[in-house]
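Researcher: Last one for today. Full complex below.
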Amino acid sequence: GIQVEQSPPDLILQEGANSTLRCNFSDSVNNLQWFHQNPWGQLINLFYIPSGTKQNGRLSATTVATERYSLLYISSSQTTDSGVYFCAVGGGADGLTFGKGTHLIIQP
Amino acid sequence: DSGVTQTPKHLITATGQRVTLRCSPRSGDLSVYWYQQSLDQGLQFLIQYYNGEERAKGNILERFSAQQFPDLHSELNLSSLELGDSALYFCASTAYSTDTQYFGPGTRLTVL
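Model: Here's the assembly. Have a good evening.
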């Protein structure tokens, strides 16, 4: 099956810093999503981005489908950004395949 | 709030028992997906239903089964429970298979 690798696995930053999270996948996909799992366990959709670039406030994402990677940018980090960020990919009706996530800690 | 609801929020049971987890998709969504999140395996796709029919299977154990009812809610049945089945179980729904999946708040299952 498709492999999804996320980097870095852990990231500790000060409030106000910027960060880039990466997701590499091993095959072509027609579904790619970024999620934030908050400390209460809830999975929150950030972006549906099988290709191209999208922005939502301090967050933006870019997927280069031909090169099989996606990037999530977080600018001006806040403590509420802490949590685990997951990239998940899919090829149709097979469900999403998740990476292991990037555990982000934003310190005040 | 994603619009997907799951009950119960927490479930504590003993090994060998059987439990049922319930999911109601967002209004208008026909597809329901079940996922399991455990410390060992991470987030794994279990099974998908579309408008009452099983559409795709992932890493679902034979002890587990699911169904989707005419009102589109879905139930995941877990039987002969083992300690290793302790996990967070998520349901997600979407209108189309290649569209955004919206996740419910999850059911945390603890098997003692």
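Chain B touches chain A through 27 residues (CB under 8 Å). Residues 68 and 74 of chain B are 4 Å apart (CA to CA).
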